[in-house]
Fold these 4 entries.
Entry 1:
Amino acid sequence: MEEVNMNKEEVVVLYSGGSDSTLASALACMRFKKVHLLTCRTSMMYNLRNAKPNMTLLQERFGKDKVIHGFSDSNEIFEAIYLSAYWRDIRRYGVYLSALVCAACSLSWHVTAITYCLKNNINFTYDGERYEDPAIWAEQMKPVIERVKKLYKDYGIRYENPVYDVDKTDHNLFELGLTRERNVKLEGFAHRDIAQPKHPHLRWKATQTGCHGGIIGCLFLSCCFIPLWGQKANEKIAVKYYDEKIPFCRECIARAL
């Protein structure tokens, strides 16, 4: 799709309600006339209502006509990517498959976003993906993100990660006047050298959807796989998984249209 034909007025933001996706949404509001916040459901997720508090703050700042929010069921796609292929994939990936739940969930969100964009003539998608050191999760890894960007590009959509290099998204939201507290973000489990913020009202619990599947994967990667085999091995397997699953994601998109 030629640049001149792109709809530059609207954007879809994959939205969990946490600091990262909220900052990405705020930046989207400064660039686009209409921002579609899309929160996807899968069977592994819980507390989806937590996406609403920060969404309300965005609407109060930028207007309800500008910021619209909706939930979309991605569970069928997630199950097709992860659960339906579980026994085949466990022979390929072994116990590491426990760490790929979030990758499969993320892919289901991307399929949903691409489908939504195509049905609504939208050519931009943002998310709150942010780099952590180490980038233990597949969806944080630069080689994986490049593959996802190519998937979007093939459908005429530009996929961007506007907060990828932002150190503290909760601080940025506070400085923009969107939130009333500065230290609200719980840092990743793998960051043992980072002091957790001592704050009596950590709002991350109230403004972040949760995932049961990610708990086991986080423990496996942080306590077992990365200490034994290293981050390069982690990245190699993650990239392999995306390379195998993206063609199937294309099939899911074709069926949805």
Entry 2:
Amino acid sequence: MVIATLFTVLFLPVGVLIGWIAHENFMNYVEEKAHPFADIIAENPHPELFDEKGKVIGNDYMALTFDLGYDPEEFEPEDISEGEA
């Protein structure tokens, strides 16, 4: 019984410490994981892609393409279509 108590007293703090360190390392890994569009963002960093702290916002993005000669005064709602992804 005394040996079991000694092992508990010795290994509980060691286990808590190892778990705490592992959790910190895991959280750092998750927070600094590369964004899927990191290469595109690095080439052409638009300010709207970043939050207040300078981290990339991990949401979906929408791209708008306008034909040459597009005049916004002639806009019609039926002109909107979903193109290629």
Entry 3:
Amino acid sequence: MNPKNLASTAAVAAVMSLGLSVQGEAQEPAGTFTEITPLGPEINSPFHDHLPCASGDGLSLAIASDRAVGSGSREAFDMYIADRPDTGQPFPEVRIIEELNTSTLDYPNFLSEDGLTLYFTTDFPHPGSSGSYDIYFSRRLSREEPFGEPQPVPGINSADSDYAISLTADGLEAYFNSHRPGSRGADIWVGRRSSADGDEPFTVRNLQEVNTIFWESAPSISADGLTLMWGDDFFGDSLGSGRRIGGHGGLDLWWASRASRQDPFGKTTNLGSPVNTIAAEFWARFSPRWPEDGSILYFGRCMTCNHDSDIYQAIWHVTPQPSFIRGEANDDGKVDLSDAVFILGFLFLGATEPTCREALDANDDGAIDIADAISLLGHLFLGSPPTLPGLGVCETLDGSATLGCESSSRQCDI
């Protein structure tokens, strides 16, 4: 018998009785925020400007402000909006949304893809009000037309305060704040429905994997539903209590990701510098292109938070994803017996940590285990199976590859 066959057969026999695997986890979006700048005087004023939300097509931006021309007093926030003809132009000066503002607090939450539906929060008792602060939506026929009569979002509002809604692009998931029973202060709740058409109500639950004893404020869900961002207690002491441990000074922004919309969100991480600073950062909203390179994060920032907040934007730059050869475990550029040995050593002997874990998943089943070594040995020496999907092929580490490849310096030709 060929010595290689003897070696491979012995290796297979040695591992058949063992069972150990390394599972993958959802990874945070890979990239950095840069070019953090306040929006111009068309949007920001000498007063308190915050709570930005942009339409999916990028042509509309709504904000809240207590500037003196509002319909209420300076202590009450009003809603403003700016519409532009194309994304290559800056937003013009915002206009007050006279048709929706009241004498109490009104602020925008979310704009639809086409900018024609606005979700907002108010404590004014519109028809259908359920309690204190409620979430409504209003539609306009075009950007030149006024918004119509407010309607409560079906299935969302309760007898307690509900506010700050954010929806996925398909309208099937809604994330919002609520003080309803089951909350520990201001918790994030998620509502789900099977159709965005008609008046189908959301079915809601507490987002327990994210919430803590602290207040989680103003959730923002990415268009694809895979990244969630929120802030510290916006309605509490902005520079004091009510904040998670590990922040940068004032209010901070936090986020978590998941591999699919059927999975729970993973580890919560502070957004970090340069977005979070010793000042207060709050109420963030993803642009709908997130997490594409060049997508925008809008957020509020203030130092004393005494009518001095402005709206900022940060540009997201994607870190190029590494490439790897599936089955090429030891990073020597070849798929051979040494790779199977490397996998076994990693699993059972405490050998060197691989530079690209995804490459060890020879059979592409989402886990590193003895099946990978067996499949690789069988492919190399026993002709079984005759082929493994992707084995020996150069791949980019995309969202479907969850085992990690961050430390690999080797690149291959796609």
Entry 4:
Amino acid sequence: MLLSCRELEAQREQLQRIQRKVDEVEAHADRGTFIMKGMKSVFGGLFRKKPDTPKEVVDKREKERLAKLEAVDAELERRAAAREARDASRSGAGGKGAASVSDAKVVRDARIAEEDALLEQISRNLTGIKAIGHAMGDELTRHDGIIDELNTSMDRTAGKIDKVRSDADRLAGRRS
């Protein structure tokens, strides 16, 4: 399971790298549009603000995404604290009472104590598995946000690339 958590973290980093590349391509498309409009007329580029460089665009969007990720992480930490508090209250409510030891039932009490120890170990293991499951769920929540944003960016970038392509074709006289 720990391997799965590491794999999910590696996938998040891959998604973030893809998002940076999409931002870079989009910035190049914006610059292409700017250049195409400048080629259409003599004064096309004189009074318009030049688009940001790809590095500026990527850096600006990285800062925005970092702020969003910090908000998501804060929410996930709040949920984890709530889960821990809930689990602590549940385990405290079902506490063990003092065992009465009878001289005639020493063997039975020893077996019960051994079973209690095994059940306690199983409980600790299940708690660890539950924590790993929550960590994986949290990572998938992060992935979901990144994938949604990536999908939006890809759609926006594809539209910009199509516009640059059609502008270039129009300038080259291939289409009207």
